[in-house]
Amino acid sequence: MSCRWEDLLRNLFLTGASGCLGHYVLERLAQQRDPEFPEQPAYHLYILIRNPSRLRLPPERLPAPITLVAGDLLRIREHAALLRQMDGLIHMAAAWGDPTLTWAVNVTHTLELLSLLDPERCQQVIYFSTASLLNQALEPLAIAGQAGTDYIRSKYAMLLRRQESSFWPDRLLTLYPTLLFGGSPHHPYSHITAGLKEVLRWLDLIRFLRVDASFHFIHAADVAEMVAHWVAHPPGGGDWVLGNPPLSVDECVEQVCAYFKKRIYFRLPLPIGLFRTLAFLLRVRLSAWDEYCLRHRHFVYPALSPAALGLPCRFPTVASLLDAYL
């Protein structure tokens, strides 16, 4: 009995493909070739999408079979039969803003999604969280679950409830992106990328200020490269923060100024108390989470970038980001 090559592909189910990161992951996985038959794609990609018009990558132009699954996470049970045919899940969908929707999507229906997979068939779940939940030892921050925004608290709750899934711990890989850049005419822009030009308008002032803080950043294209690697070579379960090597705010400003050939003649330390004063004058109430972030300004982790996996890194430096977006 003959077998079509499409029947031999691994079935991957993707949520959140209409977002910035999701576009890059979808595009990269569609490019993946079967190692034994390089002329053939490696996967059949099933994309859960509420509004197909939000997909800027026409499925018919991608080099892999793609099935658009109409719906959203709130009605995921409608696709129970399909989900039992999946060999892997990449869960990138998330909600914020409306508290009821945030908790429903980020916790209740995420757990439901995992429960609908066939543990005998599905060999890998890749779940995206956020590095804001973790301390420098990659342990959950209790304050995040107590005083964070609804988005942060719901992600914290999901972090604690992962063990309810039959894929925990050996087949559930949790990824924690740091500051995420990304976007192009064919990919939606991330929030931080969309605001980049506005921030740079203040560079003539910012370059003379000194801020005691540190962070990581990573581009969605580099995250997609790592995801493609882990799908092709499943590492098992684990918790990995995604980011380039840490960068202090002062180092970042210096690199941006060097890019634009702007000199820094002096620098004045920016006291953290000034933020509290501005909040008071503007009648902005700082939450316990805001206060925590003001006191703990070095968001530094043992982070992974493509280079750590021996993979090409398209955006390893601040200059590479500026080249792409200015």
What keywords describe this structure?
2 domains; two-stranded parallel sheet; 326 residues; 13 helices; seven-stranded parallel sheet; 13 strands; alpha/beta; Rossmann fold
Give an account of the 3D structure:
This protein folds into two domains: 5-185 and 216-247 and 299-317, Rossmann fold (3-Layer(aba) Sandwich); 195-212 and 249-295, no CATH class. α1 crosses α9. The model has no long low-confidence stretch (mean pLDDT 93). It has helices spanning 20-31, 80-83, 99-116, 142-147, 150-161, 191-194, 196-200, 203-206, 220-232, 249-260, 272-281, 288-295, 318-325, and strands spanning 10-15, 43-49, 66-70, 88-91, 124-128, 172-177, 179-181, 209-210, 214-215, 217-219, 238-242, 247-248, 268-269. The chain has a seven-stranded parallel sheet with strand order 3-2-1-4-5-6-11, with helices on one face. It has 326 residues and is of the alpha/beta class. It has 13 helices and 13 strands. The longest helix has 18 residues, at 99-116. Helix content is 36%, strand content 16%. The protein is globular and about 65 Å long.
